[in-house]
UniProtKB/TrEMBL annotation:
Signal peptide: none
Keyword set, alphabetical order: Methyltransferase, Transferase
Record-linked Pfam families: SpoU_methylase
Biological process terms in GO annotation: methylation
GO molecular function: methyltransferase activity
Record-annotated tRNA/rRNA methyltransferase SpoU type domain positions: 115-255
Natural source organism: Kribbella karoonensis
UniProt protein name: RNA methyltransferase
InterPro entries: Alpha/beta_knot_MTases (IPR029028), Ribosomal_eL30-like_sf (IPR029064), rRNA_Methyltransferase (IPR051259), SpoU_MeTrfase (IPR001537), tRNA_m1G_MTases_N (IPR029026)
Amino acid sequence: MTVHPSARPISAQHPRVRDLLALRKDGSPGRIMVEGTWEHDRLLTTTAAIEAFFWCPEAGIPDVDRYAARAEEVYRISEKLLARLSRRSRSDGLISIARVPEWRPQAFRFSDRSLVLVADGVEYAGNLGTLIRTADAADADCLVLTSRRARPTHPAVYSASRGTVLSTPIVEFGDIPSAAAWLRSHRFRVHLADPAATGTYRVPRYDGPTAFVVGSEGSGLSRAWHDQGFDAVSIPMLGQADSLNVALSAGILLFEARARKEGW
């Protein structure tokens, strides 16, 4: 087993442990908890800074040097402390605090092939992570958040996004009119995902900058988005269910627009 020479043993009273316990619960602005071997392998493929790396030798994972080498601080923790810090029933002893990139609305430049996904009021970290992963898969320019409830830095977001939360641009607006104005200023044609809409998602041409707005799992799309006067599109429900999971709906819409833009 590799033992990193700079790994310092720490106890439960260490300030870094308090940091990690706070991140474990709900995340914090700019930082996210990463746990697991696959998750750390994915972390190394990004440019994200690793603020601190925690390693439990008793967990039996060899070759931790490649993770520790990227970290600003390296700590060795006991099995007892690992059990307190881990979010898993069986941890492999690798936990990091990583910094999440900050994206500013004014930094973006868009073209006719641009795609943007807007998530309004998403409540669950797992769904938010899947929306990020879906935006990445469809080569969307960014994910816009309005009326946010789930934090992008919640630990579950990293796993559900397959690590793409560290590479997918995410922009948050404090209110819906500000987000709508930003999209209009960049000439986006905005489509609201609404099961009650009469026009299906196959009707628009998607030949310019395109944005889709999806709503929360329980309440759907905020009335404030409908008040903006944007068109609404629906995905026909042909069975007994009245709607689809928000991430699945977003995937159908994004890939339809991407197919049109790329001439698939």
